[in-house]
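note to self: the first set is below, dont mix up w the second
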Amino acid sequence: MIAFSLVILAISMFAMIQALNDYQAGQYTQFIVYGLMASVGTVLAISSITRMRQRMVYLQHVAAKVLSQVICAGCGFKVLRPFSTGDYVSKEVGQCQQCKGKMQVDVIYAEDVKPKKA
């Protein structure tokens, strides 16, 4: 989408140069046509690029937080921790802090994050 906007911006710049050349040559009708094309194209391209940037920033704020629940097979002690690459259900991840039993990944889930209203 950004590439398309940049192409439109480049075409608008070409139209602006053509409009200036037509103005210098005294062809005012073509100057107005190319000037309008350049103006509208520039506004649309810049608007599209800024909206895309705003959308990317918004999506970063709304991204879900992925958690792994680790549980001890012996005593049932549970720990929630951020998801680590390579985590899978029933993966052993160390010893229990309470009974020294084996800790395993029990559940992996995404926590809903509600967007903050500005």
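second set (the one i keep forgetting abt)
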Amino acid sequence: MDSFQQAANPQSSSGITAALDRLWERFLPEIRGRVALIESAGIALRDGIPNPVQQEAAHAAAHKLAGVLGSFGLALGTDLARKAELLLAERETPGRIEPAELLRLAAGLRALVESRGAPANPTN
């Protein structure tokens, strides 16, 4: 069977979906943790207690989320994470990061991640 036939084969497609579901389940705690880093940086900025180390960690988390979420069918998540990453890149200039915007992006990421949730039929 050539690669075109394999791609058209529903069993092959369901195998890929199952593999992606297993990967999602495995990395979901880490993905949630990255979203939490962005949220906590936004909260600290909103509360007037910016932390450069925390902002750097949130920037790295946003970068990683931007790179991975599309692989799991969450293209909107990639867009949101990329916007958060760009916003957090402004951390070198005090007052340039809009906490409300960062929190809005984090809330969108959280909702998207939770809407995908755990696979319906996890296999171990």
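remember for set 2: The CA atoms of residues 61 and 80 lie 12 Å apart.
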